[in-house]
Amino acid sequence: MRIIWSPLAVDRASEISDYIAQDKPPAAEKWIDTVFYKVEQLKSSPEIDRIIPEISDSQFSLTYS
Fold it and tell me: What does the H/E/C string look like for 29-54?
């Protein structure tokens, strides 16, 4: 699986990390590391998600681990 980050997604992740860092820099670093780690996990295991009950189609899902 190939995952391509949009420039907007990268900007938003950076903005969120910057906001968290205002109060807790270590938490911001942990958060951004976790986001990128989870995305990397999807590359090798795209089925590690849950199906949205309202849609009940594996084509549409959200990732929670």
Answer: HHHHHHHHHHHHHHHHCCCCCEECCC
